[in-house]
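Running low. Any example?
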Amino acid sequence: MSDLLRRLRRARGLSQAQVAEELGISRQAVAGIEAGAFEPSLAVALRLARFFDTSVEELFDEPDRLVEASVELLEPAAPGERLDVVAVAGRLVGVPRGGERGLVPGFQPVGAQLLTPETVQLRTSHPPRALVAGCDPALALLAGPLAHRRHPIELVWWPASSRDALRALERGLVHAAGFHVPLDATGRWRWPRLARPIELRAFTSWREGLVLRERLERDLRSLRTMRLANRQEGAEARELLAASLRSDGIEPRELSGWESQVSSHLMVAEAVWTGVADVGVALEPAAAEFKLAFVPLADERFLLAVPLDPPREDAAIYEALEAALASQELRRAVAAIPGYRGLEEMGERLGVADGDPNDA
């Protein structure tokens, strides 16, 4: 019997029917859980714990244990691979952490392991988690203000391309998605075509361009003799380089290394810094971090998108994210990294973006 569940419910003056309505389950299920006659699924247990602002192990007085559950992966992974698992809108979403995806820059602790393509083994005891996708390395700094709340929330950052981050948000697989948009010739910010409306928050602004060990003039024809560390398919940096090359009469596939796919701005800069590559495209803060030369190609703005109508079971997550974005702690942390701009607008609501990319 979950005596704590009964006490928490009564302390809030709630009936079993009211709790059932809030969680989208039957009153009989709530009664059965309290009486010990019904064992909730992991998803229901997590929703109960979040609703009563506690943990699963405290709510059900259970030691940390392993369970099996269905999971939806953000990107392909092999059975046996380590995962981070986050509850998003009542579903379990898996973030693969094998190979380079787990090196940020060292091995990171994770909470699950993939058993089959759709099943994970995970521990039931962990704090609430916010799953944020996007390529800006500064997104990792959200971990500080989220962890320093009265009721801490753990950040799980998926360093995805802009395209993949937005697709994950449209599918309801992440809590927030970051993407960057260039300033076009008319002086307006433009974002990709969207499948459904989203609400936008300001995050950072930067310049994106070439990173090299030595200064290079804007003429891109010299890149024909260099080894390129290219970003992955769907990355704005890859598209920007292709457009810049074609404007100079160069076919992108002429470059040595065009087919390479590096999954983050910092890894591009590291490849140039270590001599694995001669040139890459990344944001200016990544070049500054490795003290590399930088040739700007575009001014860009990084935006954070959240659902227009967030699921109510994740209300505490979105409240925490909004507070973290507006925090001085986050602004100070990002301001300490050269190359970032627009921090005075961080967290500002920019309105709703619908399916038309021309409404920027």
Q: What stands out?
A: The longest strand covers residues 198-212. The chain has a mean pLDDT of 84.
